[in-house]
Write a structure and sequence with these properties.
Blueprint: E1 7-9, E2 20-22, H1 24-33, H2 38-45, H3 49-57, H4 64-74, H5 78-82, H6 105-126, H7 150-163, H8 174-180, E3 184-187, E4 197-202, E5 205-210, H9 217-233, H10 239-242, H11 245-263, H12 280-288, H13 292-301, H14 307-319, H15 339-349, H16 355-362, H17 366-373
Parallel strand pairs: 3-5
Antiparallel strand pairs: 1-2, 4-5
Helix pairs in contact: 1-6, 2-3, 7-11, 9-11, 13-14
Length: about 400
Amino acid sequence: MMSDNIVRFPGTARAEDAERSLIPAKLRNARLKCRLNQSELAAQIGVSRQAVSAYELGDKNPEPQVMYQIAETLKQPIPYFTAPDLPCFGETGTQFYRAFGAKTKKLNNMSEVLGLWFTQVSRYLDDYVNYPEVQLPDVEPVSSSGRYSDEEIEKIAEDLRKAWGLGFGPISNIVRLLESKGILITRYEIEDAQVEAFSYWNGNKPFVFLSSVKESAVRSRFDVAHELGHLIMHRGIDQDEIEDKATLKEIEGEANRFAGAFLLPRQSFPSEIFTTRLDAFKELKLRWKVAIQAMIYRCKDLGIFDEFQITNLYKQISRRKWRKIEPYDDKIPFEQPRLLKRAVELLVDNEKKTTSEIISELSLSKRDIERLCKLPEGYFNVSQDFDSSPSLK
């Protein structure tokens, strides 16, 4: 376990930098967020791996020039490394990643850090704004195995639609819907990383983290519904359970079944299926905002088509090269979260906080705050300090 020691590094010629305190855990998190191991960071800042290890254990002080190199390499301001962690809403529950193991370790570590920052920024804003009340049901599987039957999952999705007053038609904007029900969502662009989405509870608040690797908005919408399934059905699952491949596969299957049931209800969707011709699904995609492949799989779940028909449809998809890019992907826009964006704008517009104060108090890079809150790039570059001096006519 990492030491929580705080080490001090000596001052530089600039007095304001004197006697800053390095928090080792903050250094480790910034490194993991950049998907670097200790050796890789060491090579970039010109020290040994042993030196980086000593910094992260709190056993050695980085020299001032090394500390500035660390900040530049890890793209965080010096205050990030010296300011104590901001509070969260409570303990963080299981984070539902799609895979575990050596191949995904760096991505999962990065996601864990980004999830922490997302939680801390949300908690910071919670001191000043009222988030919508969380409206998620408490559910448990009937079986002692902890697994849900298909019928249970269908019923959970139906009951949720009824509780939220949705009826059984298409959902126009699932991101906005979930935010209105108290779920905090971000869409953070991660370069060169296949991170689709993950979710978790922190205290009494549910979170969904979306990346931007999807080629189409409809697939991203399915991800949102998938994570909603995790938040509702799998809150009591421990982290070690989902690190078991067999258990993870079952849990992912349950979340997929929920997503299909929630987006394409069995009370209404089947009545719109009148042919096995692939082209018929193109118009249904525009109406339901669900991928053609997901609709075909839903037809399999509901027994609308037999195995031969399903196989034939997937062969057609392969021949037409629709596996990754489908028709009308360019006609359905990505749904963007707006809750945190509006919270920041509310603080600034009502002069509760200046942009400078927000940056200072969060101690994260401007770009990370902008990405987490879906603010336009450069939002924090504009000075918005309060100024009561008269203006020129």
